[in-house]
Amino acid sequence: MKVFIDTAKLDEIREACSWGIVDGVTTNPSLIKKAVDALKAKSENIEMEAHIKQICETVGEGKPVSLEVISLTRGKMIEEAEILYHKFNKIADNIVIKIPINTCNGEDTTSDYDGLKVISELGRKDIPVNVTLIMSSEQALLAAKAGAKYASPFAGRIDDYIRKNLDIKFEKQDYFDFCLMEAIGEQRFYERIEDTSHKPPQSVYLDQETKKCIDFAKDKGIGSGVGLVKSIIKIYRNFNIKTEVIAASIRNARQVKEMAEAGADIATIPFNVIREMIGHPKTAEGIKSFVADVVPEYSALFR
Ligand code: E4P
Q1: Nearest CA to ligand 1 atom 12
Q2: Residue 98 a catalytic site member
Q3: Which residue from 16, 111, 160, 196 has the least number of CB within 10 angstroms?
Q4: So what's the pLDDT on residue 196?
Q5: pLDDT band at residue 106, thresholds of 50, 70 and 90?
Q6: Is residue 78 within 8 Å of residue 125, measured between CB atoms?
């Protein structure tokens, strides 16, 4: 699995690149805002063009840097994509344009399909696209059909959504225990089925409360962020679809492991989560004992 760093902060990109583990960078307007705010907090100004050029150079030739458009309609998004691509791709031949799968904000549905139009239009212009804000397998299938090079399912936000719908309190970085959620869901379902055992199958089959139990803790049949990523990988493999899956909106190290097990092509990981991946108390304990056990005969080799 390739590792992208999910940040626009240059110091984080530089540091993670120095560890030799970065295959690419993803940004979005909120991550750019965080980078700007962090610099402003240190009374430093940001010159955006120079900042992005440095990101491209730091990550290196051919290692994808995703930059997102900011408009919500076809014409504007194409214009912005071309500006971003032509301004920055010459630096290290690594620009990928991020396009939302659907730019509709839930109110005016006229722009429902502008994202798809832009994805296919940019494909025809040979501008690589990373389709962002993917929250369902159905959207991922459409993104691939439209010609996306990358599809970014937002795993963490799906976990958040399911937990919020269930009224479960959680912190952003908390691990989402989907096995537990599945078990609770199954228990609800069987309790409900037992309740209805005296009723004729037709009425059980049509019972709305029973239907709710089947989909308890699920969103469109998806039980977790990693479940979403697995489903997309399965669909892409079924049809030999070449679009690469970027597991996005990652919140903790355990989720990274699950994405790797699921076979995600890429995980885009925030800096703090990459740092979380390195630690284990038994590694620290091992280091202590190795250092304590060094005998003079062995350390003499290094003098
Ligand atoms: C990456 O492409 C996404 O922009 C990012 O992972 C979103 O993460 P968030 O849900 O933590 O904001």
Answers
A1: 249
A2: yes
A3: 196
A4: 85
A5: confident
A6: no
Helices (H), the chain: 10-18, 29-41, 48-59, 74-92, 114-124, 137-145, 155-165, 178-195, 201-206, 208-214, 225-238, 253-262, 271-276, 281-292, 296-299
Q: Probe ligand 1: pick from 6, 27, 99, max atoms within 8 Å of CB?
A: 6
Domain limits, the chain: 2-170+224-279, 177-221
Ligand 1 pocket, 252 CB below 6 A?
A: no
- Residue 211 half-sphere exposure, CB side, CA atoms within 13 Å? 7
Q: Share the mean pLDDT of the chain.
A: 96
Closest C-alpha residue for ligand 1 atom 1 = 248
Ligand 1 in contact with 248 (CB < 6 A)?
yes
Q: What is the pLDDT of residue 197?
A: 84
Q: Per-residue pLDDT tens for 6-15?
A: 999 999 999 9
Top mutation candidate among 27, 154, 266, 268 for ligand 1, by most atoms within 8 Å of CB? 154
User: For 216-227, how does the pLDDT look when each residue is reduced to its tens digit (9 = 90+)?
Assistant: 899 999 999 999
Of the listed ranges 49-53, 99-103, 213-217, the least confidently predicted one is 213-217
Quote the ligand 1 centre to 32 CA distance (angstroms).
12
pLDDT at 195: 84
Pocket test for ligand 1, best of 65, 268, 273 (most atoms within 8 A of CB): 268
CATH fold for the domain made of 2-170+224-279: TIM Barrel (3.20.20)
Question: Residue 229: is its pLDDT beyond 90?
Answer: yes
Q: Which position has the higher pLDDT, 198 or 285?
A: 285
Mean pLDDT of 251-271: 98
Q: Are 118 and 102 in contact (CB under 8 A)?
A: no
Cβ-contact 274, 21 below 8 angstroms: yes
